[in-house]
Design a protein that fits this description.
about 180 residues; alpha+beta; archaeoglobus fulgidus dsm 4304 fold; 4 helices; globular
Amino acid sequence: MKIALDVAYHHRHAVAGLVRFREWDADRPVSGRTIVCPAPGPYVPGEFYRRELPCLIRALESIPPDYSHVLIDGYVHLRRPRVKGLGRYLYEYLAGRAVVIGVAKSPLAMARDFVPVLRGRSRRPLYVSAMGTDLETAAAVVANMHGRYRLPTMTKLADSLARRASSETTGNGDEEHRFALGCG
């Protein structure tokens, strides 16, 4: 099983969108859900992981650990002095039991060890990084995932789930939502 994760922020809470799928070229997920998380701290450049990692962990803890790969919106490696990106922290949390692939939508000057990947007709690349596999394999996986546009279908779906739930959720308490996704 493979997982695509993304987090959307609201002023009172954050929401993780989680999509489970079997094959890299899948056009429909096996399942999807959102997990509401407590309000994150403020964004600090170079310390994005402090804001996003707790919500990613909470989402992964809500499902069985039957996944081999986790795709996130972010980078795995950063330049010194910070060295670890969000993906590296997640990989370490998972104790290496799953490959972590970062699929960032924007360039980041302090990022390192990534490959730009063009998809569809887009002239703007995605920035792919990885831990637990080599960069060439990670880049090929992202390049060949289902979807005609810049973002792979599963990545876009995780993003959409998080954004939609963030705007619809009160953030009061420990909420979990499962959405009908036309799962296959």
